[in-house]
Amino acid sequence: MFERFTKAARAVVKGAVERAEEDGAEVVTEEHLLLSLLDREGTRAAAALGELCPPDRRASLAADLADARRRAGLSRADAEALADLGIDVGAIVARVEETHGAGALAGDRKGAGRWSGRPSFSKDAKSVLERSLRVALARKDREIGDEHLLLALTTGGGVVAEALADHGVTYASVEDAVAQRSA
To answer: What is the rounded CA–CA span in Å between residue 119 and residue 69?
Structure first.
Protein backbone atom coordinates (compact mmCIF):
# COMPACT_ATOMS: atom_id res chain seq x y z
CA MET A 1 0.00 0.00 0.00
CA PHE A 2 2.85 2.42 0.79
CA GLU A 3 3.94 2.42 -2.83
CA ARG A 4 0.73 4.37 -3.53
CA PHE A 5 1.60 7.07 -0.98
CA THR A 6 2.80 10.41 -2.31
CA LYS A 7 5.99 11.96 -1.01
CA ALA A 8 3.89 14.21 1.24
CA ALA A 9 1.93 11.27 2.69
CA ARG A 10 5.12 9.32 3.33
CA ALA A 11 6.55 12.37 5.11
CA VAL A 12 3.48 12.45 7.37
CA VAL A 13 3.92 8.78 8.29
CA LYS A 14 7.64 9.26 8.88
CA GLY A 15 6.92 12.37 10.96
CA ALA A 16 4.39 10.43 13.04
CA VAL A 17 7.02 7.78 13.79
CA GLU A 18 9.46 10.54 14.79
CA ARG A 19 6.81 12.12 17.04
CA ALA A 20 6.20 8.76 18.72
CA GLU A 21 9.93 8.25 19.23
CA GLU A 22 10.28 11.74 20.73
CA ASP A 23 7.43 10.92 23.12
CA GLY A 24 9.08 7.64 24.07
CA ALA A 25 5.92 5.88 22.89
CA GLU A 26 5.98 2.23 21.93
CA VAL A 27 3.26 2.80 19.31
CA VAL A 28 2.41 5.41 16.70
CA THR A 29 -1.12 6.64 17.31
CA GLU A 30 -3.73 8.63 15.42
CA GLU A 31 -2.63 11.62 17.46
CA HIS A 32 0.93 11.26 16.18
CA LEU A 33 -0.41 11.21 12.62
CA LEU A 34 -2.40 14.39 13.27
CA LEU A 35 0.52 16.16 14.91
CA SER A 36 2.72 15.23 11.97
CA LEU A 37 0.10 16.64 9.57
CA LEU A 38 0.06 19.86 11.59
CA ASP A 39 3.87 20.10 11.18
CA ARG A 40 3.68 20.04 7.37
CA GLU A 41 3.85 23.03 5.07
CA GLY A 42 3.18 23.39 1.37
CA THR A 43 0.96 20.34 0.95
CA ARG A 44 -2.74 19.89 0.25
CA ALA A 45 -3.51 18.84 3.82
CA ALA A 46 -1.39 21.68 5.23
CA ALA A 47 -3.35 24.18 3.14
CA ALA A 48 -6.68 22.71 4.28
CA LEU A 49 -5.58 22.71 7.93
CA GLY A 50 -4.23 26.23 7.57
CA GLU A 51 -7.65 27.38 6.43
CA LEU A 52 -9.78 25.32 8.81
CA CYS A 53 -7.59 25.31 11.92
CA PRO A 54 -5.15 28.21 11.64
CA PRO A 55 -2.01 28.21 13.79
CA ASP A 56 -3.56 30.50 16.41
CA ARG A 57 -6.22 27.82 17.16
CA ARG A 58 -3.85 24.87 17.28
CA ALA A 59 -2.96 25.33 20.93
CA SER A 60 -6.63 24.71 21.73
CA LEU A 61 -6.59 21.56 19.57
CA ALA A 62 -3.44 20.33 21.33
CA ALA A 63 -5.07 21.05 24.71
CA ASP A 64 -8.12 18.99 23.73
CA LEU A 65 -5.87 16.09 22.74
CA ALA A 66 -3.91 16.38 26.00
CA ASP A 67 -7.17 16.41 27.97
CA ALA A 68 -8.26 13.23 26.21
CA ARG A 69 -4.88 11.65 27.01
CA ARG A 70 -5.50 12.47 30.68
CA ARG A 71 -8.75 10.50 30.37
CA ALA A 72 -6.74 7.50 29.08
CA GLY A 73 -7.85 8.22 25.53
CA LEU A 74 -11.57 8.25 26.20
CA SER A 75 -13.53 10.60 23.97
CA ARG A 76 -16.12 12.90 25.49
CA ALA A 77 -18.78 10.63 23.98
CA ASP A 78 -17.24 7.67 25.85
CA ALA A 79 -17.12 9.68 29.08
CA GLU A 80 -20.76 10.72 28.62
CA ALA A 81 -21.81 7.10 28.01
CA LEU A 82 -20.04 6.06 31.19
CA ALA A 83 -21.68 8.95 33.05
CA ASP A 84 -25.05 7.55 31.96
CA LEU A 85 -24.03 4.35 33.75
CA GLY A 86 -23.12 6.34 36.87
CA ILE A 87 -19.36 6.34 36.27
CA ASP A 88 -17.70 9.74 36.68
CA VAL A 89 -14.56 9.65 34.53
CA GLY A 90 -13.41 13.03 35.85
CA ALA A 91 -13.54 11.76 39.43
CA ILE A 92 -11.65 8.59 38.48
CA VAL A 93 -8.94 10.62 36.71
CA ALA A 94 -8.65 12.92 39.72
CA ARG A 95 -8.27 9.99 42.14
CA VAL A 96 -5.71 8.21 39.97
CA GLU A 97 -3.69 11.41 39.55
CA GLU A 98 -3.93 12.11 43.28
CA THR A 99 -2.38 8.72 43.97
CA HIS A 100 -0.01 8.32 41.02
CA GLY A 101 0.67 11.85 39.81
CA ALA A 102 -0.54 14.11 37.02
CA GLY A 103 -0.94 12.37 33.68
CA ALA A 104 -0.87 8.88 35.18
CA LEU A 105 -3.57 7.67 32.78
CA ALA A 106 -1.96 9.39 29.80
CA GLY A 107 0.48 6.55 29.32
CA ASP A 108 3.40 8.97 29.30
CA ARG A 109 6.62 7.01 29.48
CA LYS A 110 8.88 9.93 30.33
CA GLY A 111 10.73 9.04 33.45
CA ALA A 112 9.75 5.41 33.08
CA GLY A 113 12.31 2.84 32.04
CA ARG A 114 13.65 3.88 28.66
CA TRP A 115 12.21 1.80 25.87
CA SER A 116 14.35 1.37 22.80
CA GLY A 117 13.28 0.26 19.39
CA ARG A 118 11.08 1.44 16.57
CA PRO A 119 7.49 2.08 17.52
CA SER A 120 4.87 -0.03 15.82
CA PHE A 121 1.53 1.36 14.65
CA SER A 122 -1.49 1.12 16.91
CA LYS A 123 -4.60 -0.59 15.61
CA ASP A 124 -6.27 2.81 15.23
CA ALA A 125 -3.30 4.31 13.36
CA LYS A 126 -3.27 1.31 10.99
CA SER A 127 -6.98 1.85 10.48
CA VAL A 128 -6.31 5.48 9.46
CA LEU A 129 -3.81 4.28 6.86
CA GLU A 130 -6.32 1.75 5.52
CA ARG A 131 -9.13 4.33 5.46
CA SER A 132 -6.87 6.73 3.57
CA LEU A 133 -6.67 4.14 0.80
CA ARG A 134 -10.46 3.77 0.80
CA VAL A 135 -10.86 7.57 0.69
CA ALA A 136 -8.46 7.82 -2.26
CA LEU A 137 -10.28 5.03 -4.12
CA ALA A 138 -13.68 6.60 -3.45
CA ARG A 139 -12.40 9.90 -4.83
CA LYS A 140 -10.90 8.03 -7.80
CA ASP A 141 -7.44 9.31 -6.96
CA ARG A 142 -4.53 7.19 -8.13
CA GLU A 143 -2.24 8.02 -5.22
CA ILE A 144 -2.75 8.45 -1.50
CA GLY A 145 -1.83 12.00 -0.50
CA ASP A 146 -1.60 13.67 2.87
CA GLU A 147 -5.09 15.06 2.28
CA HIS A 148 -6.39 11.47 2.25
CA LEU A 149 -4.74 10.87 5.63
CA LEU A 150 -6.44 13.99 7.00
CA LEU A 151 -9.79 12.93 5.57
CA ALA A 152 -9.32 9.46 7.09
CA LEU A 153 -8.61 10.99 10.51
CA THR A 154 -11.98 12.76 10.38
CA THR A 155 -13.92 9.55 9.70
CA GLY A 156 -12.77 7.21 12.42
CA GLY A 157 -14.62 8.51 15.43
CA GLY A 158 -12.74 8.68 18.68
CA VAL A 159 -10.65 11.40 20.27
CA VAL A 160 -8.80 12.74 17.22
CA ALA A 161 -11.90 12.96 15.03
CA GLU A 162 -13.82 14.54 17.90
CA ALA A 163 -11.09 17.14 18.55
CA LEU A 164 -10.83 17.95 14.83
CA ALA A 165 -14.62 18.33 14.52
CA ASP A 166 -14.66 20.62 17.57
CA HIS A 167 -12.25 22.86 15.65
CA GLY A 168 -14.24 22.83 12.41
CA VAL A 169 -12.18 20.16 10.68
CA THR A 170 -14.70 17.63 9.38
CA TYR A 171 -14.69 15.37 6.36
CA ALA A 172 -16.92 17.79 4.45
CA SER A 173 -14.91 20.89 5.38
CA VAL A 174 -11.61 19.24 4.45
CA GLU A 175 -13.06 17.96 1.19
CA ASP A 176 -14.30 21.48 0.34
CA ALA A 177 -10.95 23.06 1.24
CA VAL A 178 -9.02 20.54 -0.86
CA ALA A 179 -11.42 20.94 -3.79
CA GLN A 180 -11.01 24.74 -3.70
CA ARG A 181 -7.23 24.35 -3.87
CA SER A 182 -7.50 21.86 -6.75
CA ALA A 183 -9.83 24.01 -8.85
So the answer is: 18
User: Tens of pLDDT along the chain (183 residues)?
Assistant: 678 999 999 999 999 999 999 988 889 999 999 999 999 999 999 999 999 999 899 899 988 888 887 777 777 777 778 888 888 877 887 777 777 776 666 654 444 445 556 889 999 999 999 999 999 999 999 999 999 999 999 998 889 999 999 999 999 999 999 988 775
> What is the reported pTM?
0.83
Query: 146 and 39 in contact (C-beta within 8 Å)?
Result: no
CATH code of the domain made up of 2-182:
1.10.1780.10
Amino acid at 160: V
Residue type for position 148: H
Question: Closest Cα partner for 54 from 138, 155, 168?
Answer: 168
Q: What is the DSSP letter of 55?
A: G
Closest CA to 68 of 77, 55, 59: 77
